[in-house]
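Listing 4. Sequential folding, example run.
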Amino acid sequence: MIKLVYCIRKRSDITPEAFYDYWLHTHGPKVRDVAKAIGATRYVQSHTILPELNQTFKDGRGLAPPYDGITEVWFESLEVMQAASGTEDGLAASRLLVDDESTFIDFSQSRVFMTEEFDVFDFRAKA
């Protein structure tokens, strides 16, 4: 599997509360609706929390400010993702998502890239 990782910063004209609400309750369902068209098998939003602790990390390490959150989108393979993105439905879905993202994400301060996961450990209980 491969994964798209999207480190997101909100637009400055949007409050954090409005940003997180829109991202989860409006944009999330749009991604779910077009998942098959883009070839996605999983979608996760990680919303940034604990601003005081994040400030401590930033100050103690001399880091840049944290992102407002991270989106992860999984695909079975690069071939599946490319095949989906080459279809009329896939292209329309991608345009819809980018257009919607532009209403709440600051593209110039965000980052997106493809990754491959390597398990180092996983201590979660297995059912």
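-- end of first protein; second protein begins --
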Amino acid sequence: LGTAVAISGRAWCRYLCPQSALLGLLQRISLFKIHRNPSTCIDCGRCNRVCPTRLPVATSRAVKGNCIGCLECLVACPVEDTLYVGLGRPKT
């Protein structure tokens, strides 16, 4: 297991943890998602670096996958309102 953690980082959380699986399922059906406004994004990559599940936040319009809703990406973003939690389609 040590090698798996070294290769993928947080392998237990990403692939084996039942709580993570449940949160991932809830995220997929949730009406609220984390959205990124590409017109105000400065492509600094801070959101990717702080994401505990290593999701590609900096290249997504709406964060999908195993997002656990920690909102670390929103806190790390230096540009106000570039990342936000929203309902439905992202702002343009």
